[in-house]
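Weekly puzzle thread! Below is a chain. First person to post its structure in token form gets bragging rights.
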Amino acid sequence: MTSMLTIGQLAEYAGVTIKAIRHYHERGLLAEPGRDSSGYRRYTAADAIELVKIKTLADAGVPLVRVRDLLDADPDTLTAAITEIDHDLQDRMAQLQRTRDRLAQLRGGDRLFVSPEVADYLDDLRRHGVSERQTHLERDGWILMRTASPDDAALWIAEKRELMADPEFRALYLEHDAAYDWSPDDPRLPALADRTRDWFTNRHSRSETRPVHNPGIARLAARSQPGASSPAWDRLARLMNG
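Winning reply:
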């Protein structure tokens, strides 16, 4: 190369943009040379060497605020600083990987928030034709239960999946789901309450020896999540407890 370089030639030689060189000037990392008689800056081989050093440190992940101190550092100081910066980069990489893992989980929908067993159960509900509103209520309920009592939640979800495999229970569940939008005066509600009460009366829960509540159909109207009830469900609960 010639002994004097234009800013464009310097940028090409070092593999940076002209904008980057001007930014390094503004940050005080690379001294601005004087201008020639034509008003253009002219750079020397020493400027090129300094620019390559700056680029090397920046490409290695050294923050620009620290580059200035490291350009002329002795080997021991430089080694210690690079080691510290490397540790910082490893921490950032680990955080980015955790973020990527969470994004991957988000693509899995419910699986970000609930156990695989519950996520499979929610998928079963959708396949059986349960409304998305009810599926979301179920999901939110399982989030609360898993947080409050993980051991009990594991027992409940195993039992609930067995319940949904029972055609009679599944039919009751789907009818309760549909009843959400009925009028509270709908004549179908008393019969639905009777059938549901009879079904639970004739069934013994595996979980009833433990201090938990069966999360079945009879409790749907009593849930406390926002939107977990309707006038029809409120009446259905009264009929079932009457």
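Puzzle host: Confirmed. Bonus trivia for everyone else. Confidence is low (pLDDT under 50) at residues 206-225.
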